[in-house]
Amino acid sequence: MDKVYNFKDKEKEIYKNWEEKGYFKPKIDSKKKPFTIILPPPNASGKMHTGNVLMVAIEDLLVRWHRMKGDPTLWVPGTDHAGTETQITFERELKKQGKSRFNYSREELYQAIWDFVQNNNGQIESQLRQMGASVDWSRYTFTLDDKVITTVNNTFKKMVDEDLVYRGNYMVNYCPKCGTTYADVELKHEERRDPLYYMKYGPFILATVRPETKFGDTAVAVNPKDKRYEEWVGKEIEFDGLNGKVQLKVIADDFVDMEFGTGVVKVTPAHDKNDYEAGLRHNLEVKPVIDLNGKLNEKAGSYAGLSIFEGRKQVVAALKEKGLIDHIDENYVHTVALCKAGHEIEPMVLPNWFIKVDAPHKSFKKPALDAVKSGKVKIFPQWQEITYVRWMEEMRDWPISRQNVWGIRIPVWYSLEKNPTLQVSYLKKDGTRVIRSGEGILKESEFEEAEKGLQKIIAPIECIPEFECSSPTDHYLQETDTFDTWFSSGQWPLVTLGYPDSEDFKYFYPTSVLETGWEIIRLWVSRMVMFGIYLTGEVPFEYVYLHGIVRALDGRKMSKSLGNVINPEDYINEYGVDALRMGLISGTANGKDFAFPKDRVIAYKHFGNKIWNMGRFILMMRDQWGKEISAFTQIDYSSLKNEDKAVLEELARVIKTVDLELEKFRFADASEAIYQFMWHTLADKYIEQVKVREDKNVALAVLQHVYMTSLTLLHPFMPFVTEEIYQKMPGSGESIMIEPWPTLSSQ
RNA sequence: GGGCUCGUAGCUCAGUUGGUUAGAGCGUUGCAUUGACAUUGCAAAGGUCAGAGAUUCGAGUUCUCUCGGGCCCACCA
Description:
alpha/beta, four-stranded antiparallel β-sheet, four-stranded mixed β-sheet, 23 helices, elongated, RNA-binding
């Protein structure tokens, strides 16, 4: 053995051997309860980040532990197409080439992104191997595999049949730049300083940051308690606007804050969430003035075609000129909603697909809430449970359609004959882009071109969709929206196991532990519980363990703009996978966020070397004593000295501790226990005692036993170095990863 | 505004139902070591547990308030 453990040479080779021997594949035994984990799929075209490393470290630890305990253990790997994120990345690439998504038909664009993802693919797989992840590669799943699409489509169909899906106008968070909607939870909020315009509206002066939406106003509102404006409530006001006379109703509603501005607000139901809801209460007309490209539409008269920003500038200038601006507060600070890519969100009313989460005939969310409350699903750390419960209690109907191409297309079709008002954009044969109505396409006999060059359908609310998984008959176009990525990933435990009737599904479902970062408890965990119960009647997992976010060395969130992003590769190269895994695990703050524990990574690199050298010491002793005194075979219990008994007792305590802590998901405590024992008890004390012992045959047998048992305990934490040492020790079996887990009775 | 969470050694963090002298890693200081390991060993220094009050025989741990971080959610016309 070398004097120093050289992790670099060995890790790859060791992993290859494990994989070839088939150790990662479970042996199904109907008499035994399986242990199953589904890997939360990392982004297929991405690279491992530090959070992924922690995730893999924890899951591999759990999986190896259970496998060694003899449970039929399955860990299913997979990758995620990451809808919006990937498409944004791809479109950024297109932009560099001077192109945009509008140069492609929907199908071509999908194919181009597919190729793009394939080119960037494989990184995650090789990094999972590098990490030592003992996943069963034969069950690998990608979120756009056919089997996933089939299941997801079937689920949608089932929900349609059970009246749990509807298509409705809805105020959505629309990003004109991305051309897609976002769920509330996907948004970021940022403080901005913007001018607050005090505009004259007939008898009133009211404050707004968005004068350009004035063409969509359908009322002005005051607070019912506001004495100042009492006399106006219910009346109509009339005044000169930029495009002629304007008539607006004055309504009274509690949502108006008397303290803000002048206590009067303009109501624009088409472009503001509050106003939309007020509009529903007061039966106001919804009058959109901004189109899907973020431009003012024909209702804005001479301002039509201008961007929101430019429109605002020109509207303000015109208002000033007409003396309709009372004054401007230039230092108004408010927060604006931003999409994932950082663009400003435009609230819009659009037809979207929704899931009823709490329908009277079938509640989707209630059983999922009860599952956690009743303890059928147990969440660790426990204080995270409240996040889940609150979210489920407050959950509203879930918009599941996205105006993305990169995703699973919603299996719904529109007949052009039946839906003359359908708005379809497509590329003609000659490459020009046209937007035509359903009626227009038929009139021009362009159906084939439209079908082939199809980019996007906007189906006004009166259109009649037909639910099929393939084209019904002639002159049908499929919905161009895709499912929200959480709609499909919410069914991940099902699709990866071959729901509904595969052997795998029958045996391995429900899974044992869902391990992921706490930030997606609402987005993902809740959806999996809902779908699991809805489709199978059973919860998808028994335990949820949520790890904290790994922050940068400075304790702040990692971000490209701060330049403090930690690249796990660097640490793997410098300290080895074992050290990185163990460092992260021992540095985790039990589910709380924590700064990247660099010190611990270094400490565990040293630890790897320490146990390596303990192995060398034992081999050296063997050379010296082994032949003469037949040590290292069996412990002679009748001749044990107190120090032998002490170390054996201590070992038994460590075995107990490790099991106990792992059962409680207290990974750091478990790793710490082994570390302290091996280094400061076994190496520092016991080995020193062995060196001066007369009865080497007794002591060396104890030493070898305690050492090998500790190595076995350590293996799920530091798989590579333990395997490498194991292979060097005489009397070893095939691999340490198939050694039986140490128990108290075996001591 | 609602909620969660944290404040313990120079730094990163443990401290689980309240119970001897408050722990670990890294760092610091001193000494040692030529055959397992300098990626070492032995030892030491370093903490009024953010502050104040309450409960208790006993509080880092429970409760209240104050101060100071971090995060989540909602709203902001």
